[in-house]
Amino acid sequence: MDGKICLVTGGTFGIGKATAAGLVKLGAKVVIVGRNSQRGKMALTEIKAQSGKGEIEFIAVDLSSQTTLRQFASAFNEKYPRLDVLVNNAGGLFFKRQLNQDGIEMTLALNTLAPFLLTHLLLDQLKASTPARVVNVSSEAQRAGSLDFSNLQGEKRYLNFQAYGRCKLALTTLSYEMARRLEGTGVTVNALHPGGVATGFGQGDSRLLMALFKLAKPFLLTPEQGAETSLYLASSPQLEGVTGKYFIKKAEATSPAQSYDRAVTQRLWKLCEELTHLPA
């Protein structure tokens, strides 16, 4: 990965930080983004101490805000002449239904629309850096959700884990469609499930989640183990040209049937364009 520029969202803790550290160790220049500046500075210090080489930078970005995403992408495109790997790692599970500043339900905004919009905004840089890769961190939690367009933002009923699964299913589905649309450009798009990882993800929203996390922690993967598939998709020469696939434990896997439904995919894509104000 020497000489390559990589961007990792949610790179300040957990799987994202482990992914960023792994890319730095491989020689890449890595930019990590996250909302918390203090956590970002700590991540930089830890990764630099672990890697002993390479370059890494932190930029504070609220990924749930489309305005902020556009400002970040514009600044990134101006500063960096290329982007070899985009790892859309950031995600979140929200105990209660809440809306972002764009009036969109937060689970959808962060887990689905943020990677969809950011990838579009950085496409010119990716195409200029071919062969380039987009890596979308999905989840097997997608099997707990369905793409019910009448309740995509939890308007009728909001169940937090179901909402999270639905949005990860949407991300996998969009990954396949984006791969199809970018075929022949030299930009590949793949999705993955990192495994059950001990990151403390989502637990701050609920005492119940915190209790369940504490019980499950001895049986969960470390962030470094969870990052292995992300790193594999980002850097392995074996995956040169491989696109539109879903991976678990560095092996190709099958996602839920709905993710392969082209009619559902087209409807979802159009809706995401409308919600992110992208031209059709």
Overview of the structural elements:
This protein has 280 residues and is of the alpha/beta class. It has a single domain, classed as 3-Layer(aba) Sandwich (Rossmann fold). 43% of the residues lie in helices and 14% in strands. The chain has ten helices and eight strands. It has helices spanning 14-25, 37-51, 66-79, 106-121, 123-127, 160-181, 207-216, 223-226, 228-235, 262-276; strands at residues 5-9, 29-34, 55-60, 85-88, 132-137, 187-193, 246-248, 251-253. It has an eight-stranded mixed beta sheet with strand order 3-2-1-4-5-6-7-8, with helices on both faces. Helix 6 (160-181) crosses helix 10. The longest helix is centred in the middle third of the chain and has 22 residues, at 160-181. The chain starts with a strand and ends with a helix. The relative contact order is 0.14.
Summarize the topology.
Layout: E1 5-9, H1 14-25, E2 29-34, H2 37-51, E3 55-60, H3 66-79, E4 85-88, H4 106-121, H5 123-127, E5 132-137, H6 160-181, E6 187-193, H7 207-216, H8 223-226, H9 228-235, E7 246-248, E8 251-253, H10 262-276
Parallel strand pairs: 1-2, 1-4, 2-3, 4-5, 5-6, 6-7
Antiparallel strand pairs: 7-8
Helix pairs in contact: 1-2, 3-4, 4-6, 6-10
What tags apply to this protein structure?
280 residues, alpha/beta, 8 strands, globular
How many H/I helices? 10
Q: What spatial order of strands do you see in the largest sheet?
A: 3-2-1-4-5-6-7-8
Q: What's the architecture, going by CATH?
A: 3-Layer(aba) Sandwich
Examine the coordinates and then state which fold CATH places here, giving the name of the CATH topology: Rossmann fold
Total number of beta strands: 8
Q: Low-confidence parts lasting 5 or more residues at pLDDT below 50?
A: none
Percentage of residues in helical conformation:
40-55%
Class in CATH?
Alpha Beta
Overall pLDDT, averaged? 91
The CATH homologous superfamily is named: NAD(P)-binding Rossmann-like Domain
Q: Which structural class should the secondary elements be placed in?
A: alpha/beta
Shape, principal axes of CA atoms:
globular
Order of helices and strands: EHEHEHEHHEHEHHHEEH
